[in-house]
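SAMPLE LOG
Freezer: B-3
Tube label: C17
Construct: single chain, 284 aa
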Amino acid sequence: MEYIKLMRPKHWIKNLLVFLPLVFSGSLFKESNFFICLFGYICFNFIASCVYIMNDIKDKEKDKNHVTKCKRPIASGKVSVRNAIIELFLLLIISVIIVWYFNIPTFSILLLLLYFVINIGYSFGLKNVPILDVSIVAFGFLIRVLFGATLLDLNVSNWLYLAILTLSFFMALGKRRNEVEKNGDKARLVLKYYSKNFLDKNMYMFLSMAIIFYSLWATDKTMVEYSNNQLIWTIPIVMLLCMRYSMNIEGNGDGDPVEVIMNDKVIIVLGFVLALVLFLILYI
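STRUCTURE (predicted):
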């Protein structure tokens, strides 16, 4: 159980973005495409878990003194560093086998490597560089979408690309905001460079841009023809989702996107409604 916990499977929810290009292309039920995306998703999960394990190994001593991180498998001593390294290499080997067996496209492999490299850099010091730290987190979300698109040789709409990127910046800055709010500059070295005022202004700048870009995508000529102009009805749902997420960020939430989503029933319900409406528009 501790070895599974070490992989942080609840964070795999972020990797579902790999399926986004498949869903919006209208080919979700094309069996070959779905299984290519499924195994690409599994591969991305394992690569992300390798990053988490490496980060936990590096921060072992610091995590021991943290209120919640001290419960992590390595920091708590339930998993030794040696066994964690073995698990990391096993996940890497499985990922390589998936890439080879399913003939994953070259550009998709390069995106996987890019994600791995920049996140290793993040773990080993870049997370202490202001602006760059949140940029790496934001681009991680974008890489997931681009990875899913390259798996199937699909194009990502410029408006959708910008909507995902700006929303990712909003969530990354929101996480920093709550860290500053709750722990001052004690939780991370980089927090001494951020003020709550700076984070608030930039958070809501990116949030406004995200809603605008999503609206432009939903009303783009290509999408209007494809969806019979029905995607416009998803815009209010996206607005409500963003409002609820913002309320959570400014409340008692810790700002981590996964924690916010998984622990807020209203966000879960709104997310389900959005997914259902999108499905009905695109596939019924």
